[in-house]
Design brief:
With 411 residues, the protein is an alpha/beta fold. Helices cover 45% and strands 17% of the residues. The chain is built from 13 helices and twelve strands. Helix 7 links the parallel strand 6 and strand 7. Helix 11 packs across helix 12 and helix 12 packs across helix 13. The protein starts with a helix and ends in a 5-residue tail after the last helix.
């Protein structure tokens, strides 16, 4: 089942739980706007190459639309649509004054030079600048993009609209980015994990963790888990996988990855198959990379007691059913990885106010938001007798539906 079908299925289940009117349900499902643009740039060798860019703006009932821009070969309308919808529910679960959006360009950023990436980003921004804005739609980095990408977007947008630091988040600190933003998603994942484990009388210090994906989210999560006394026994990314049942030396592994751009040949553990990390012996599994990695083929082999969805849509609905029957507790992505958009909100607020926060304040506020959201999800689970995924979806969908009705939507 692809990401869009799975997301629609979860939404419809939540709508039924909430007893939403069928017309309102349909309205909430249909995106506010879908943008598709052609982006042609000269390559460094003088040849021309064309890419297709997308921006799906899903819902703006609760405020400006918010969501990342990803550069990846598999970017397509269905995936972007699903991720935009997930952002609508995610921002509502976090109780941020945002709606959801997502964008992307179907390209492989590893095959483009820095100057080619800059030209591509600027052309894409030129094509969509009238449809984004500080109080309309605020992009951020995602897979294949980073703070530098946002700096180019900010600069290109400002050529048309004047300097507008709040038009994107995830920017470099020197251009109005927030302290703590780089670590925010990973730190939020760890706060969410603490909240969940506390429900079972456990703490991070007593658990073994396996982390699939060692990019921005997975590496920060590993760092914080290690600092809190957790034992990270396996990690993987596209370059390789490494395990150590006694716990990996995470600071050494982070340094190895930084120096070699790869997990291969790390001396503090044994190499393993990339997919083995999903089914290895551990207490807590954190899928932190691409979607759909847990499916009906491998779900039955998962040995973890808890799954923390640090990635977007890592668990297919078929896998969800299998894991539920096994008694595995899944903390859903629309809550677990909401730390990134929460600190993006803090960055946006700081830019609008023209007053920057200390990192200590950013992290304090992030923890407060994550803990409060978990409390609200648990309350929905109790009210509707459902699991954490449906509790989170019901919370998010209910908040967006209420905002839509309050603004004067007529059934």
């Amino acid at each position: 089942m692809n990401a869009l079908a799975a997301t629609n299925r979860n939404f419809r289940h939540a709508a039924r739980i909430l007893g939403l009117d069928s017309k309102l349900e349909k309205s909430l499902l249909i995106p506010f706007r879908e943008i598709k643009v052609e982006c042609t740039i000269p390559k460094d060798d003088g040849s021309l190459v064309s890419y297709v860019g997308f921006r799906i703006q899903h819902d703006n009932a609760r405020g400006p639309m918010k969501g990342g821009i990803r550069y990846h070969p598999e970017v397509d309308p269905d995936e972007v649509n699903a991720l935009a919808q997930l952002m609508t529910w995610k921002t509502a679960v976090a109780d941020l004054p945002y709606g959801g959006a997502k964008g992307g360009i179907g390209c492989d950023p590893r095959e483009l030079s820095i100057s080619e990436l800059e030209r591509l980003t600027r052309v894409f921004t030129q094509k969509i600048h009238d449809l984004i804005g500080v109080h309309r739609d605020v992009p951020a980095p995602d897979m294949g993009t980073n703070a530098q990408t946002m700096a180019w977007m900010l600069d290109e947008y400002s050529k048309f609209h004047g300097h507008s630091s709040a038009v994107v988040t995830g920017k470099p600190i020197d251009l109005g980015g927030s302290l703590g933003r780089d670590a925010a998603t990973g730190l939020g994942v760890v706060f969410a994990t603490e909240a969940l484990l506390a429900e079972y009388g456990e703490s991070i210090a007593n658990q073994k963790f396996a982390i699939q994906g060692f990019g921005n989210v997975g590496s920060w999560a590993a760092k914080f888990v290690h600092e809190k006394g957790g034992k990270v026994v396996a990690v993987s990314d596209i370059t390789g996988a490494v395990k150590n049942p006694n716990g990996l030396d995470i600071p050494a592994l982070l340094k190895h990855k930084e120096n070699n751009q790869s997990l291969k040949d790390f001396q503090g553990g044994d190499s393993m198959d990339l997919n083995e990390v999903l089914v290895c012996e551990c207490d807590v599994l954190m899928p932190s990379a691409l979607g759909g990695v847990l499916n009906k083929e491998n779900a039955a082999d998962v040995k973890a007691k808890f799954i923390i969805e640090a990635a977007n849509h890592p668990t297919d609905p078929e896998a969800d059913e299998i894991l539920s029957k096994k008694g595995v507790v899944v903390l859903p992505d629309i809550y677990a990885n909401s730390g990134g958009v929460t600190v993006s909100y803090f960055e946006w607020v700081q830019n609008i106010q023209g007053f920057m926060w200390e990192e200590e304040k950013v992290n304090f506020e992030l923890k407060k938001y994550m803990m409060r959201s978990f409390k609200h999800i648990k309350a929905m689970c109790k009210t509707y007798d459902c699991n954490l995924r449906m509790g989170a979806f019901a919370l998010g969908v209910n908040r967006v539906a209420r905002a839509t009705l309050l603004r004067g939507w007529e059934a």
